[in-house]
């Protein structure tokens, strides 16, 4: 080899080494590489997220399905340090050298990272175990609904994951004790709910626990010989008995005495720096700088407006002068004509009706949408072990490998809570054109950094879903169905009431009972559902405000575009503008729409 060639090779090796170092540890040469690095770091920090995405399995990578995320205090500290460095690197790139997609991506990622770091002072304020989304229910949900069991490797990983429950729960216990030392305790009712849930979960033989029965069902679909299947089931049973149940018992032992220390004050105002924490929660969920008072007043105004619209429909049905129009819906909801039987047959009929509604709306949107997701949508019942404390419905995204469709989960715990006149609106919100359109389309975006397909902003996502309800009313899907139209307005009213109640609890220091009483006056929901909702707001401060704030912003932007463009305004194009960029903070969504107006004006 000549000296010249040797020098060239050495230079090439040095440049390559520099490039790799910059890509993995330093400042990447190209900003797109930083986007990807930050996303990979966040994703691989959460094996549960990787399981939900279902992307790596396509490439034969399954190791994450045997793991659980590290939630230890030490890991949390490292995570925030990494986030600070990532944000600093992101801001170090010259904006003049970034194209349009990069500028938008940079601003979205900047907002996301900055918002996470704003939450660092309050990282012990959240209730790690709660009746809505606590670790004690989320882990079984991961195993039974998300963990794939489509091969022997998946099945073995299922057992390995069960073996990790002890470590995960020990880490949770460590953080719970730190919160307690800081004077951060959940309200007494939360502790009682969680204790009841955990006690019931382990108070049954392993063979009847969902962790076993669901695994058994999934194994039955694999091509395994009887010996192999029995061996896997036996190993799962042993882990449930010797790892899972003792892990739950540790938390039960901790939470029992904690109940005596807790109070019945429900708002986060009671916590250290509680007012500042709630302001952060509002900003985090609404992606605005609205004050609690502004949110509260908006809620009161919206409640009054929507109730007037409801009364106009009730007048036409022969029910004039109702003091609280939504209470008339509660009366309707008790009538047999609007209910399914509280039986297995009634639940099957309700699921079939949800499917029929979604099939109909899917075929009714050509005039307002030309952008649709490729992923399919299924309707399923909320798993029975979760339904007691779960919301009335929720949506689960499809995986990115194409193996699992989007799923609209309907809570059928009590068919008296499932009024027929509310089914259309719920289907439009959770399914089409609501969450399924927004989230599945975002996952399928091309030509943008990968993180843009997944980054979550609650006000955008929930605002879109609530907007979808109103849109379906605007295009006539409630025509000649005044009761369902009332159901649509009741759903919108429900979200307006949330603005009042959430700020009432956490800002105006309402008691749990005050919040329940207000919701009873101003919604058509049953008492049991209202109690569940209020308890949700208590453990998820600010989240319930995202819906109405997001919807009002989308409606305002649509009105602005329509007024500016006049005859050139296209509702299809407006929906494309809102959806084709994925989830964004509302301030950035406003900028996107303004750029669209300028380009078409």
Helices and strands in order, then pairings?
Elements: H1 3-24, H2 31-44, H3 47-53, H4 73-91, H5 100-118, H6 135-146, H7 152-162, H8 165-181, H9 188-202, H10 210-219, H11 226-261, H12 274-286, H13 292-316, H14 325-333, H15 344-362, E1 377-381, H16 384-387, E2 393-396, E3 406-410, H17 423-430, H18 435-443, H19 458-474, H20 482-506, H21 512-522, H22 527-539, H23 546-565, H24 571-579, H25 586-600
Parallel strand pairs: 1-3
Antiparallel strand pairs: 2-3
Helix pairs in contact: 2-4, 4-5, 7-11, 8-11, 9-11, 10-11, 13-20, 15-17, 17-19, 17-20, 19-20, 19-23, 20-21, 21-22, 23-25
What are the defining features of this structure?
601 residues; mainly alpha; 2% strand
The total strand number stands at: 3
Q: List SSEs in N-to-C order.
A: HHHHHHHHHHHHHHHEHEEHHHHHHHHH
- Unreliable stretches: none
Counted up, domains total 3
Protein architecture, described:
With 601 residues, this protein is mostly helical. It folds into 3 domains: 1-123, no CATH class; 128-264, no CATH class; 279-552, no CATH class. The chain contains 25 helices and 3 strands. A 3-stranded mixed beta sheet has the order 1-3-2, covered by helices on one side. The termini are far apart. The mean pLDDT is 92.
In short:
The chain is mainly α. It has helices at 3-24, 31-44, 47-53, 73-91, 100-118, 135-146, 152-162, 165-181, 188-202, 210-219, 226-261, 274-286, 292-316, 325-333, 344-362, 384-387, 423-430, 435-443, 458-474, 482-506, 512-522, 527-539, 546-565, 571-579, 586-600; strands at residues 377-381, 393-396, 406-410.
């Amino acid at each position: 080899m000549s000296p010249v060639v040797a020098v060239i090779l050495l230079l090439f090796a040095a440049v390559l080494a520099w490039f790799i170092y910059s890509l993995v540890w330093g400042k990447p040469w190209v900003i797109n590489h930083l986007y990807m690095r930050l996303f990979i770091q966040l994703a691989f920090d959460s094996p549960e997220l990787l399981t939900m995405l279902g992307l790596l399995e396509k490439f034969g990578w399954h190791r994450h399905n045997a793991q659980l995320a590290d939630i230890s205090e030490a890991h949390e500290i490292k995570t925030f340090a990494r986030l600070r460095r990532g944000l600093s690197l992101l801001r170090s790139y010259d904006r003049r050298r970034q194209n349009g997609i990069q500028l938008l991506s940079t601003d979205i990622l900047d907002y996301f990272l900055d918002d996470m770091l704003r939450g660092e002072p309050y990282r012990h304020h959240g209730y790690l175990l709660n009746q809505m989304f606590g670790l004690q229910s989320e882990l079984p949900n991961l195993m039974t609904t998300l963990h794939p069991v489509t091969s022997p490797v998946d099945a073995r990983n299922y057992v390995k994951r069960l073996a990790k429950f002890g470590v995960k729960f020990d880490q949770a216990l460590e953080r719970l004790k730190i919160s307690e030392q800081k004077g951060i305790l959940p309200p007494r009712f939360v502790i009682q709910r969680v204790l009841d849930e955990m006690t019931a979960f382990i108070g049954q033989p392993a063979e009847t626990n969902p962790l076993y029965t669901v695994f058994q069902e999934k194994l039955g679909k694999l091509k395994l010989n009887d010996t192999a299947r029995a061996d896997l089931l036996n190993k799962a049973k042993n882990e449930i008995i010797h790892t899972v149940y003792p892990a739950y018992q540790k938390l039960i032992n901790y939470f029992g005495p904690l109940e005596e220390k807790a109070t019945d004050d429900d708002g986060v105002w009671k916590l250290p720096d509680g007012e500042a924490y709630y302001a952060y929660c509002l900003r985090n969920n609404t992606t605005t700088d609205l004050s609690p008072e502004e949110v509260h007043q908006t809620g009161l105004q919206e409640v009054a407006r929507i109730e007037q619209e409801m009364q106009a429909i009730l007048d036409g049905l022969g029910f004039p002068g109702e003091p609280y129009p939504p209470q008339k819906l509660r009366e309707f909801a008790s009538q047999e004509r609007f209910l399914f039987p509280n039986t297995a047959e009634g639940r099957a009929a309700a699921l079939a009706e949800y499917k029929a509604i979604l099939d109909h709306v899917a075929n009714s949107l050509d005039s307002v949408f030309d952008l649709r997701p490729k992923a399919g949508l299924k309707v399923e019942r909320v798993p029975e072990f979760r339904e007691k404390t779960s919301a009335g419905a929720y949506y689960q995204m499809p995986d990115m490998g194409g193996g699992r469709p989007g799923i609209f989960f309907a809570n059928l715990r009590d068919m008296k809570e499932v009024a027929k006149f509310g089914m259309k609106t719920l289907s439009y919100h959770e399914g089409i054109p609501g969450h399924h359109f927004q989230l599945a389309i975002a996952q399928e975006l091309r030509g943008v950094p990968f993180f843009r397909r997944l980054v979550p902003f609650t006000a955008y996502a929930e605002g879109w879903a609530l907007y979808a309800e109103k849109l379906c009313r605007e295009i006539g899907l409630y025509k000649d169905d005044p009761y369902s139209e009332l159901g649509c307005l009741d759903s919108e009213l429900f979200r307006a009431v949330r603005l009042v109640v959430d700020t009432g609890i956490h800002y105006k220091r309402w008691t749990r009972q005050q919040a329940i009483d207000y919701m009873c006056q101003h919604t058509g929901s049953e008492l049991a559902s209202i109690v569940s909702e209020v308890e949700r707001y208590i453990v998820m401060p600010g989240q319930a405000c995202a819906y109405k704030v997001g919807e009002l912003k989308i409606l305002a932007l649509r009105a602005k575009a329509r007024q500016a463009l006049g005859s050139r305004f296209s509702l299809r194009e407006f929906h494309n503008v809102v959806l084709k960029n994925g989830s964004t903070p509302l301030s950035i969504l406003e900028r996107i729409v303004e750029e669209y107006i300028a380009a078409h004006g």
